Amino acid sequence: MSTATEGAAPAPTARVTIDHLSRNRVVTNQVFTVLVHGAFVLALLPLVWILYSVLSQGWSLIAHASWWTNSQRNITSSVVGGGAYHAIIGTLEQALVCAVIAVPIAIFTAIYLVEYGRGRFARVVSFMVDILTGVPSIVAALFIYAVWVTTFHFQRVGFAVSLALVLLMIPVVVRSTEEMLKLVPNELREASYALGVPKWKTIARIVVPTAIGGIVTGVMLGTARVMGETAPLLILAPYAAAINTNLFSGNQAALPTMIRDQFDQADQPAVDRMWAAALTLILLVLVLNVAGRFVARLSGVKR
Amino acid sequence: MATITGHSELDSSPSGDNAGANSGPGRFGDRLFSGLASGSGAIVVALIAAVAVFLVVQAVPALADNHANFFTDRVWDLSGTQIKFGIPDLLWVTVISSIIAMALAVPVAIGVALYLTMYAPKRLAQPFSYLVDLLAAVPSIVYGLWGARLLLGYYQPIQDWIAAHLGWFPLLNGNTAASTGSILLASIVLAVMILPIITAISREVFQQTPATHKEGALALGATKWEMIRTAVLPFGRPGVISAAMLGLGRALGETIAIALILSSSNGDFSFSILNGGETFASRIANNAAEFDTAKKAGAYISAGLVLFILTFVVNAIARVVIERRKAFSE
Fold first, then answer.
1. Does residue B77 lie in a domain region?
2. Which residues on B lie below 8 Å from A3 (Cβ)?
3. Host domain of residue B292
4. In a domain, B215, yes or no
5. Dihedral Cα B254, B259, B260, B263, nearest 10 deg
6. Quick one: pLDDT band at residue B6, thresholds 50, 70, 90?
7. For B177-209, what is each residue's pLDDT tens digit?
8. Domain count, chain B
9. Nearest-CA distance from A156 to chain B in Å?
10. B219 with B285, same domain?
11. What is the average per-residue pLDDT within A86-108?
12. Nearest chain A alpha carbon to B316
């Protein structure tokens, strides 16, 4: 780039004003200003496009009460009607059970990393959390398949999906909890120790409550992430058009597999249901997301 | 659940016996709490180990029974008694689509991160970065619908033009007749999907540029762009590289969006990115119903194992790069 040499050469006059910038430098500066603004607009384009088209094509169906109360049982692709209740219940159940298993492990891991972890083992744990962040959801699903189906010969059920989601949720919650615990001022810990409070009680009564807002946010964002995961569902929980609330037996529907199921049909009623299911999923995820950030804002760690 | 290593058991169980013997009322609680904490850490380590062990153990019998070369033969036939499977075409499609996605996403992500940290009005920077983060919240299956049902119509003329005018180049030697998704289309959607991760990390490192560097550059008469080029970008480079690698790792493992967009062409293999194909993840997902025998499942699990190793290496590199930056800047 030619500006490098020009930038180094001082202007001959003693007083350099903005007018003396060479045309080349001014143009380069303006070009990059435009490019940077353009990049931002370009990044938001898909978001707006996706939200607009899903909303406009899915709205009419989810506005009906029957969408939230009926399943797809006995409804073929060319027939209008039915709802997503069976899929919503499956998604919520699987995500909830996943959170119940993953959150304690994740929070204690974060406590370990921030409050206890020193030396090699702590570095290994931190490294493994990073690796877990990068494990593709399909690999997590294959792992659970290898354990659940091939090794123990259990059926493919909703609970197996929850187990696969645990692997995907732990790193999200560990990282966000870790960040929050690090924000808790050391003075609080020291004040507590000075009063003779043991370490575990300091963590349980002082450190965690101070950071609880951020921890809740992390849990909600993690839950939102696993709700939209499709790969574990494809491997571990075949779609069912009827309502099944039992995580331990039978096929269970979830919103992503319902979308996948309708995607294969060419008939217009199925296409409409596909967009409506996508809108339902986006709404669930976005509501959790926005609520999570709201919690963070309400009760962030204050100095 | 996976086996928990001896570490956690050692830490948590004997604490009850020794608690009374040691002084202080808080001893037992302390032992228990630190045991729970390090036990959870051990679970995380054990999980990764278990993933590797289970995938290897279940892949080995299928690999041993494979009547084709796993790394060089372009076949995938699990129907007969003699199973044959090989991964070179899967590896090619996975790697090329992810690399193109990264190449498309990184410049835009750097631009967005610079906008959010250097150009956007102070008051709007926070809500704007939140909007970019929302891109990461959109489920990947919705990206799949977007690519396969909405973007495809706008993209097809571009592909036709490229095939007509640049078809002499082996990578772009496409079949224009196909109306289904090509590798390039999948890469574009992948690029959008990994954009928020790369942006978030780049934004963070750009923000940490020391004010003295920026002010120094401006005081020497640099324009805003020159300040960014001489102070912000060099400081943020390791962070951006690491972010790009994390994005690459995410792209390598993406499943459902690829499965919906990419047409799994059964035609002859070619190196063209204008053709269809299958990645590791989409091959596994497309054939999930076929997992009826251990041997068939083993073939897909060995493909998953290669994917796991691939993402492990990419993520480890990202981690090493960012660690080195920390050591350097502190």
1. no
2. 226
3. 84-329
4. yes
5. 130
6. very low
7. 455 688 999 999 999 999 999 999 999 999 999
8. 2
9. 11
10. yes
11. 96
12. A131
Domain co-membership, B36 together with B166: no
pLDDT tens digit string along B20-53?
Answer: 344 455 688 889 999 999 999 999 999 999 999 9
Q: Are residues B98 and B54 in the same domain?
A: no
Does any domain span residue B1? Answer: no
Q: Which of A189-193, B3-7, B240-244 has the lowest mean pLDDT?
A: B3-7
pLDDT for res A14: 52
3-state helix, strand, coil in chain A (%, to 5): 75, 0, 25
Is the ipTM reported for this complex over the cut 0.90? no
A50 interfaces chain B, CB cutoff of 8 Å: yes
B128 and B22 assigned to the same domain: no
CATH topology of domain A85-298: MetI-like fold (1.10.3720)
What pLDDT does B268 receive? 66
- What are A115-149's pLDDT values in tens digits? 998 889 999 999 999 899 989 999 999 999 999 99
Query: Residue B139 is nearest to which of A128, A129, A256, comparing CB atoms?
Result: A256
211-240 of A, contacting B, C-beta below 8 A? 224-225, 227-231, 234-235, 238
Q: What is the CATH number of the domain that holds B243?
A: 1.10.3720.10
Q: Which of B:105-144 have CB within 8 Å of A?
A: 107-112, 114-116, 118-120, 128, 130-132, 134-135, 137-143
Is the domain of B37 the same as that of B176?
no
For A215-225, how does the pLDDT look when each residue is reduced to its tens digit (9 = 90+)? 999 999 999 99
Q: In this structure, are B129 and B20 located in the same domain?
A: no
- Contact yes or no for B51 and A135 at CB 8 A: yes
In a domain, B96, yes or no: yes
| B246 and B191 within one domain | yes
When CB atoms are compared, the residue of A50, A146, A231 closest to B55 is A146
A14-23, A111-120, A204-213, B293-302, range with the lowest pLDDT: A14-23
Least confident of A204-213, A218-227, B46-55, B75-84: B75-84
In this structure, are B250 and B312 located in the same domain? Answer: yes
Contact A231 B2 (CB under 8 A): no
- The answer to whether A155 contacts chain B (CB < 8 Å) is no
Q: Where are the domains of chain A?
A: 3-63, 85-298
Please tell me the predicted confidence (pLDDT) of residue B197.
92
